[in-house]
Amino acid sequence: xxxxxxxxxxxxxxxxxxxxxxxxxxxxxxxxxxxxxxxxxxxxxxxxxxxxxxxxxxxxxxxxxxxxxxxxxxxxxxxxxxxxxxxxxxxxxxxxxxxxxxxxxxxxxxxxxxxxxxxxxxxxxxxxxxxxxxxxxxxxxxxxxxxx
Length: 148
Fold this sequence. Notes:
Layout: H1 2-6, E1 11-23, E2 34-45, E3 50-61, E4 64-77, H2 79-85, E5 92-95, H3 97-119, H4 134-137, E6 142-145
Antiparallel strand pairs: 1-4, 2-3, 3-4, 5-6
């Protein structure tokens, strides 16, 4: 098992998609504090040896969302490395903690840039996605069930 954890996994970024973007102007009050909520999900495309990281950002004001952004990164894993990530029964893809964090760091950085691009020269230009310590956010390896 330790050889899986320490093995270099060869991958490439093959797609970026902004799957959600919305501003709900009525929920934003400039004089009020804002809260940030983030979520990350993982997906898999076994036919193309693909892994997706979906990062969702929501800015709230008075517990009501006023900006929602979701960015997807699609990665292709090299064939030999893909096989090494599969469980023995072939029903689960196992992303090591390091690999999950690495792929997510790349996605978070892109999300930060997308947010900047979307709000530049708008009343929301002061919104910046802060740095996120993914060692506190992702604490265990990610197992993704492959659909039959």
